[in-house]
C-alpha cells in the first residue's frame, strides 16, 4: 500500500522481571481495515495492547503514528492521537450511570452526552439507555457502553481485546455488524482474539503471536482453522478423542428448588434451581459469567450456606447448611474460578497450599503439621499433573495461571473425590494446559466421579459434557442432552430468548 | 526513569534480617537530625537511648523488666494481626487485667491465703480476655470494626481505672493519692534476680513465645489464622470459620494483655495506680510489627523497644530529652520498618524509559 | 447562660474538630484508602498551630502551619501505602504514633501557656433572632468558613467531574488507571487533603476552642472522627450530622458535670466512646465492611 500505515510498530520489546512478554514485535495497521492479533493465553497479546494504548511503555523499539514516531507516557497520550480501547474486563464503574461513565472520558454536559449516546447507538446498532446504572446492565450492554465511550472520542484506531469472550453467539453477530460499519467509515480496527473462526470471518490480515514474538503474518481467510492453530501454538493441535461415557450410576448431587437472595446489589438472585448429577457423568452449566455462576458455585461448595438444608443434597445427605469442610468429608472437591486468593494463597508455598484442602490426607498429627507428608503430597501432585515449578517451596503467586490451575486441579483430584465442582476450568490457561485439564476431568469421569463444570467456553462444554444447563439471570434451564442440542440453541438460552 | 517494584518468587531470607537492622539505622539517623534540630545534644541522646541500658547490670535488668509485658502482649497481638484481626486496644485489656488482679488484694488486703498470686493472674487473664471478646462479639454479630471498638474500649478502661482509684478503691491512708493499698507480699511475683525488679513474668512471656511459635509456625490452627489473614477468600474456600478466627485472634490478644496487666500490678507497681496506663498496649503493636509478626522476631523487637524505653529514661536526664522522644523514636522505627520491609516481598527495579 | 443556650452556642464549635477530620478522612476513604493516623495528625497540627499563634499572634499563620505539617505527616503514610504498598493498618498506626510523639516533643515547652481565641462574628439580621441569634448565629470565622466548606465539599463530590473521578478511583482503581486517570496522583492528593483537614481540626482545637496546648488534648477525637465516617456512610451531609451529634454530646457532658449530675464524671467522659461503639454496632449491622 502506498499510503503509510496508521500505526506501525518496529521491533517493540517489553519484559517483566524474568519474563520477556514481547520481543521485537513488528506490526502495521491501516485505516479502513480490520487487523487481527491472534495468539493463545500468555502469548503477549495483552502486553502489546498496553504498549499501544500507553498503559505501559516499551523497553525498546519504536511506535509510529501516521509515519511519525510517538511516545505514549500514559493512556491519555494515545487517546489524544485517536486510539480507543475496549477492554476485555471492562473498565466501567458499576456504581455510576452510563452517562457518568462516559463523562469520565468524554468532555461535555451530561444532557448532550446522553443525546450523543443515543444517536451513536442508533447509527451503529449499539442501543443502550444512557441513564441506566451500569450494574444493572447485561454483559453485552456493558460492552456497547465501552465501545460507545471510545467512539465518542472519534478514534482513528479502535482496539478490541478479546471482545467476544463474554458474548453469546447472537451478540457476536451484532458486534461484527457494528465493526464492519465502522470499518466502512474508514476506521482502523485491531481485533485481539484466540478464536480462530471469528478471525477468519472478520479480518483480512492477522499477526500471529507466540511466546511474545510474531510468528506469522497471514490472510486468515486463506487458511483453515487447523493451520492457524498450528501457527498459534507452534505444533499440531492436540487431537482429543475420548471414550464414550458409560451409563451414569447413582445420584451424587441434587439441587432442589434452590433459591437464594443476592448478597449485594451487584449480585444475582438465584431462583428455583433444580439439578441432578450422577456418578460417571459430566454435566455442564453454560452461560455468561455474572448470571449467578459465582453464587451457585459458592452455594454448592458451602462457602455460602443455603436457606434450607434440603435445597442441596450431596451423596443423598441434606447439606444445605453444612460448611465446606463437612461437605468435603462426604467426598466433595471444588476447583474455584479464582486461583489466586481463593483456590490458593499467593504468598504461601505450594506445599502449604496443599494443606489448604488436603490436610485430611494424614498431613496433621494432633493438629501439628507433618511437613514431610505435606511435601511428598505436593511433589506427587507436581509430577502427576505436570506442574512446571522449581518445587514445593515455590510461592503460588509466582506461578503462571495454567500451572497453578494444574496444581489446584491436581490437589483436588488427589483427594479422590466422588463429586467434583469445577468452575471455569480453563480461564486464562494456555491450550496445552487446557487440553491436559480436560483430559484429566474425563479420566475422573471414567473412574466414576460425578463432575459439574461451570464454564463460559461452549466448545469445552460440548467436548466434555453429556448434559448441559444454561444459567441466565439466576435461573437454570432444564437439562439439554449435549448430543441433541447446538451452540445456537444454547446461545438462545444465554440471552434469555427461550427459557 | 522510574522505580518499579517487582515481586520476588519467594521471600528473601536475607532481607528478613536486613530490613529491621536497616530500619534501626535509618531511625537513628532521622532521630539524630530531629534531636539536633531541637537543639539537644543528639550524640548524647542516642548514646543514652541505645547504649546506656547495657552499661550497668541494674539498667539491663530494667530492660528485662520492661520486656516482659511488651513481649507477652505483642505475641498475643501478632496472632490476631496475622489473621487480619486488628486489636489495637490492648492497652484497655491490659488495664482491665490489672484491675481484675487488683480486686483480690484490694478487698482482702491482709488475705493470707496461699493461692492469692495465682488467683490474681487468673483474674487478670480472664478480665483481659473477656474485655477483648466484647469486641469479637460486636465484630462477628454486627460487623462492627474491631479496630475502633477495641480502641474505644481502651479509652473507657482508663475512665474505669480513674473511677476506681478516685473512689471506691482509693487507699484510705494514701494521703488522697489516686492509688490502692500496697499489696501484701503473697500478692507479689517472685523476683528472678536478686537486687533487681525483674520478676518471673519474663518467664511467662518466654513461654508464651514458645507457644506462639509452635502454634503459628507448626500447628494447623496457626495455619488457618495465617490463611485468613493472607487470603480471606481462600480461608472461606477451605472452610476455616471466619468468626472463629476473630474470637481466637482477639481472645488470645486479650489473654496476653490481661496477664501482662496482672503482672504489672503484682510486679514493679505493687499496687494499682494511674501509671499502670504507661502505653505498653500501644507500644506492643509496634513491637509486633517490627518483629515481622513472627514469634522469634518479636522476641528481638521487644528487647529493642525495651532498651529504648530504659534508654529514654536516662536520656531525659543526661540529654534533656522529653519523654515523648521515645514515642517519636518508636514511630520512626515502625515507619522505617514498613518502608524497608518492602525489600522482603519485592525487589526494586530501575525502569529506564527509552528515549530516541 | 442557661443549659440550652450553652448547647446552642457551643455545639458547632465543639463539633468542628470532629467535622473537619472526618470530612478529610471521608475523601481519603472514597479513593479506596484507609488512614488510621487521624489522632496523630490532629495532635501535631494542634501543637504546631499553638506554637505558631503563640509566637506570631496570627491565627491564619497557625492554621496554615498546622495544615502543612499534618499534610507532611500524611505524605509519610502515602509513601508507605501508595509508594511501597505496606499494610494500611500498620502504616496508619505508625504515622499516628509519630504524630502524637512529635506533638508532645514540640509542644513540651508550651504547655500551660495561653493565647487568645478568635472573636465571634455576628451574621447581620440573623443575630437579632431571639435565643438563636446570640447563640447559634454568633460563631467565630472558622465555624462560618467550615460550614461553607462543607457545602462546597458536598458540591464537589456530588456535582462535579472531580467527584466522579474520586468515586471511580475508589470503586475500581485498575479501571480508572486503564482509562487514563492518574490514580496515584489522585490518591496522593486525597491523602494530603485528609492530612490538611486533620491539621486544621487540631489547630481549631488548640487555638480557638480551648485555646491551650496540652499533651493528649486530642483525647480520642481522631478515632471518633474515623468512626463518624462509617456512621455517615461516606456521605458529606450524614458525616456532618454525626459530628454535630457528638458536639452536643461533649457539651452535654460538660453541662452535666457543671450541674453536678449524680453520675461519676468518668461515666460522662466515657459517653462519647460508648456512643461511638453503639453507633458502630447499629450502622455496621447493615454493612459487612470492616470499617
Determine Rg of chain A (CA atoms, Å): 24 Å
The number of strands of chain B is 2
CATH superfamily of the largest domain in chain A: P-loop containing nucleotide triphosphate hydrolases
Q: Counting H and I runs of at least 4 residues, what is the number of helices of chain A?
A: 16
The amount of beta strand of chain B, in percent, is under 5%
Rg of chain B: 22 Å
Number of strands of chain A: 23
Please state the structural category of chain A. Answer: alpha/beta
- What are the low-pLDDT stretches of chain B, counting only 5+ consecutive residues below 50? 352-356
Kindly report the CATH topology of the largest domain in chain A.
Rossmann fold
Sheet with most strands of chain A: 7 strands, mixed
Give the mean pLDDT of chain A: 89
Most extensive interface, chain pair and sizes: B-C, 45 and 52 residues
Envelope shape of chain B? globular
Structural class of the secondary elements of chain B? mainly alpha
State the gist of this model.
Chain B is mainly alpha-helical.
Describe the structure.
The complex is a heterotrimer of chains A (499), B (356) and C (291). With 499 residues, chain A is an alpha/beta fold. Chain A folds into two domains: 7-233, Rossmann fold (3-Layer(aba) Sandwich); 251-331 and 417-494, P-loop containing nucleotide triphosphate hydrolases (Rossmann fold), CATH 3.40.50. Chain A has helices at residues 45-53, 75-81, 98-103, 110-124, 139-151, 169-184, 196-202, 225-233, 293-301, 324-329, 350-358, 371-384, 401-413, 431-446, 458-464, 487-494; strands at 7-16, 19-29, 34-38, 60-65, 68-70, 83-86, 157-161, 188-193, 205-210, 213-218, 251-260, 270-278, 282-286, 312-314, 317-318, 332-335, 364-365, 368-369, 419-423, 450-454, 467-472, 475-476, 480-481. In chain A, the strands form five sheets. In chain A, strands 13, 16, 19, 20, 21, 22 and 23 form a seven-stranded mixed β-sheet that branches. In chain A, strands 6-7-8-3-9-10 form a six-stranded mixed β-sheet, sandwiched between helices. A four-stranded antiparallel β-sheet of chain A has the order 2-1-4-5, covered by helices on one side. In chain A, helix 11 (350-358) crosses helix 12 and helix 11 runs parallel beside helix 13. Chain A is globular, with a radius of gyration of 24 Å. The model of chain A has no long low-confidence stretch (mean pLDDT 89). Chain B has a domain at 75-291. Helices cover 70% and strands 3% of the residues of chain B. Chain B has 13 helices and two strands, in the order E-H-H-H-H-H-H-H-H-H-H-H-H-H-E. Chain B has helices at residues 13-37, 42-51, 57-82, 90-107, 116-142, 146-166, 201-218, 220-230, 232-238, 242-269, 280-290, 295-318, 324-345, and strands at residues 2-7, 346-351. A two-stranded antiparallel sheet of chain B has the order 1-2. In chain B, helix 5 (116-142) packs antiparallel against helix 6 (146-166), helix 7 packs antiparallel against helix 12 (295-318) and helix 8 packs across helix 9. The longest helix of chain B has 28 residues, at 242-269. The radius of gyration of chain B is 22 Å and the shape is globular. Mean pLDDT of chain B is 90; it is low at 352-356. Chain C has 291 residues and is an all-alpha fold. Chain C has one domain (3-114, 121-290): Orthogonal Bundle (ABC transporter involved in vitamin B12 uptake, BtuC), CATH 1.10.3470. Chain C has helices at 3-30, 38-56, 59-83, 88-107, 141-159, 161-171, 173-178, 183-209, 221-231, 236-258, 265-284; strands at 120-122, 138-140. In chain C, helix 1 packs antiparallel against helix 10 (236-258), helix 2 crosses helix 8 (183-209) and helix 3 packs antiparallel against helix 4. Classes of the chains: A alpha/beta (499), B mainly alpha (356), C mainly alpha (291). Chains in contact: A-B, A-C, B-C. The interface between B and C is large, with 45 and 52 residues.
